[in-house]
Structures are given as C-alpha cells and as structure tokens.
Amino acid sequence: LACGDDLIVLQNFVYGDTPTAAAVRQLMDHLLRKGDEFDISRYDLARTTDIRPLVLETVLTYLELDGILTPLGAFYSGYQIRFVHGEARLISGHTSERQAFLQRLFDSGKRGYKWLNLNVDESALALGESRDRILKALSYLETSGDIELKPSGLRHRYRLVARNEKPDIEMLCQKMQKLFAERECKDAERLALVTDFSEQSSCLTRHLLRYFGEDLTEDCGHCGCCLETSAPASRKLPHSPEPCISLEQLEQIQQVIAEGHAALRAPRQLARYLCGLTSPATTRDRLTKKDAFGMLEHYPFQKVLEQTESMVMS
Q1: Alpha-carbon Rg of the chain, whole angstroms?
Q2: 257-291 CB burial, b ≥16 within 10 A, e <16
Q3: CA atoms within 13 A on the CB side of 99
Q4: How many angstroms separate the most distant Cα atoms in the chain?
Q5: What is the C-alpha separation between 229 and 226, in angstroms, rounded?
Q6: Is 53 within 8 Å of 43 (Cβ atoms)?
Q7: H or E stretch including 53?
C-alpha cells in the first residue's frame, strides 16, 4: 500500500506550516508593543499575520515558557441573544429601573432577524456601565429562561512580564525562526523513518525494537519479511518520475505574481498556495477559488519554493 508519491503531500504539509520571517516579525511587534496587559483574538491575529492558528499558539507557548508572556485567561467579547418569549414581555417583568437598563442594553446592540448581536465592551462604554454588570444581567436572563445566548469573539488576555529591559524583538524573531526550522527538519526526518521502515527487507519486529532501544537475539519469524521465502535485496517504494515545471505553468505563476495579492507577496506564501496549502490570508481573500491554487500540488514543496524565490526576488 506504500507509494513514494504519497510522501510529497505529507512533506508539503510539513514545510507549509513554517511561517515567513516577515510574519513572525509582524506577530512579535503586535504582541510585545501593546503594553503591560492586553488581549488578542487568535483568530483575527492568524488572519492578519498569515500564520496558521496552531502555529500561532506554538509561538505564544514559546513566549510563555521563556517567561515573556503570562496568560490571564480567556473571555468572549460578544454575544448573540435570542428572546425566548419576546423582548417586550421580558422587559415588562422587571422594575422600572431595571427595565430602563435592559432596554438601553438591548438598544446598544445590532438587531438581526432572529438574533441581537451585542459587543459587551462597546455596550459598556455606551451605557456607562461596567462589563461585569452586563455579563451578570445576561447570565441571569439566560438562567431564568428568558433568553438564549451564543458567545462569540473568543479573546485571550496576557501580561507582558515586567523586566528591567524590554524584550529584544529581533533576537526573539531569530529564535522563533530557528525553532520552526528545527521542527521542520525533525518532522521531515520522521517521515524519512517511516519510509525507511517500509523499505526494510529484514525482520520488521527487530527494526521497530531497535528504534525503541531494544533488540532481539534472533529474528521474530512471524513478520512479513521473515515469512517471505525469497525476500528482495531492496524494497524501494515505487514512485513516479519527478515532474518538471512547464513553461505554461511558469507563465501562470508569473500571472499570479503580477496580480499583486498581499497574501502571496512572499516566496513561501506563493509556494504554499501553488502546492494547494491553505493559509489564513488566502482563505480571507478567497484566493483558494482561483485556478492557480494547487496547480503544483504534486510537486515537492522545496522545488516549488526554489522556483518562487527565483521569480519573486528577481
């Protein structure tokens, strides 16, 4: 069932996760220049920096482990509200003072066909009330069965750890790039280990045990290689000849570059796109619907990256 062509897709995902140096720098500038305490939307930040959410979380984890950021918890910035028994009936069941508060609260939101969209911070500012009072009121109404709530806009709060000197952003960017490059190499090495295992012609059980630091005194006698009476000297995986990028494809790539999409400005961003790997920015700009997306998905990522580097930098 093993085929060498399958490795291209798997390797492309490994290389496609690595963010560009510019994206890492943009992220660091955003995080470390916001003040002592701040909150972020990881979703929005992924889209603006074009760093995949899981990769962005990895950066945040590294900063936490290095003692640069301290997480302070998560909260929702907004809520969708549906009135179970109608808005007028809900308001009429309260004291005059509370009726006025609830009416002003609901009027501060954006009304839809079924749902009222409420941004808690904007409503608190407009009403001159605390965020805590608004949240307690919504929680009470939900518990009473008067409204249905849907939270939205998950945000995470952080504190920049106080130090005598501000963090060296340039040094941190270099460190992050090195960490991602090392992770890229390790993931590629793991794929190579799987390939090596599938190409073994000797005892497979023994090969696995050696990987975990053990060994057998003799072959197991029951794996596929041991049971095969005439095992071949080599079990190289079958694979198609490596394709060459045609002149027509080069013209298509040049056309994409000429279109000047911000999400495809860097060679690595363009290589990801051509290999059919989505990113927050290409999804945001709906570029994955274009014909050029994935046109080189059967080509090794590194080969495509070399091509885009020669074209974008020229």
Answers
A1: 28
A2: beeebebbebbbbbbbbbbbbebbbbeebebeeee
A3: 9
A4: 91
A5: 8
A6: yes
A7: helix 53-65
Q: Which of 75-84, 214-223, 233-242 has the lowest mean pLDDT?
A: 233-242
CB 276 within 8 A of CB 293: yes
In the predicted structure, residue 238 carries a pLDDT above the cut 90? no
Residue 162 phi, psi dihedral angles, 5° rounding: -65, 130
d(CA 169, CA 40): 18
C-alpha angle 6-7-8 in degrees, rounded to nearest 5: 90
Residue with tokens 């798997």: 10
**Alpha carbon of 257 to those of 68, 75, 102, 111, 294: distances in Å?**
38, 40, 53, 42, 15
Residue 226 in this model has a pLDDT that exceeds 90: no
Residue recorded with tokens 């090596």:
196
> Which one-letter amino acid corresponds to residue 300?
P
Summarize the confidence of residues 231-235 as an average pLDDT.
64
pTM above 0.85, yes or no: no
212/199 Cα distance (integer angstroms): 19
User: What values do phi and psi take at 227, rounded to 5?
Assistant: -80, -20
Beta strands in the chain (DSSP E): 37-40, 69-83, 110-111, 116-119, 147-160
